[in-house]
Design brief:
mainly alpha; 2 strands; 77% helix
Amino acid sequence: MSKAFRRMTGLLVIIAVGLPFVPLVLWSFSERWFFPGLWPQAWGLRAWTYITSTAGMQVMTAIGHSVLVAAVTAAIAVVIAVPAGRALGLFDFRGKDLVSVLLTLPIIVPPLCVAMGLHLWFIRLGLAETYVGVIGVHLTFCLPYAIFVLWGVFSNYNPDFEDQARSLGASRFNVAARVMLPMILPGLSVAALFAFLLSWSQYLSTLIIGGGRVITLPVLLFALMGSGDRPVAAAVSLVFVAPAFVALLFSARYLGTRSLTGVH
């Protein structure tokens, strides 16, 4: 494959991914834009100033709530997914196929059904309209992805390295921290990114379980879209998609470099 063809393919991918965001960028810097104009009739920074101003503190608060919920969800998902993925990837046991089916249920079942079913349960447990409840419902969707990623990682994992470390006197903690963790770190990073982004983008489940009291960025964004203030809604939309681009750059540069150099 020639270098020119690779560059052209990369350029086409960038255009295909970035083109839908051009209207959002234009709207976010517009002061006045009326049909049938192809460009805004007046430009300005009102939308971005609003986000960072005292009046727009609800946006910054919603961002903080989203980061907190997504980070906690990703951390819990990874902590649970490591032993689960290790067990599924390294061992064959009775009921393994059933476990696989159960893990896919939250993915294939419509999210509305899952959220509504958990809502009734969470009300009885006192978890509705709380951050704990929102994190719990996010785990329902994020945990299967994290487990499947680490299942694949451990399917190609060689536990003989751990046996060699133990034979040299390494403790269980050192084996896990200095042998297993470095070897699975790329897959662990992918699982954490998946969980974080899935939690970050949850709207319906957050609205149902949070009951309008837990305001994350997707919940606020949908409210802004209905308010008619398109420049502010466009600016918040760009903030909303920013973590996805950061994760894409991280995975392409950091994880890709580690794979190419053979670093584990």
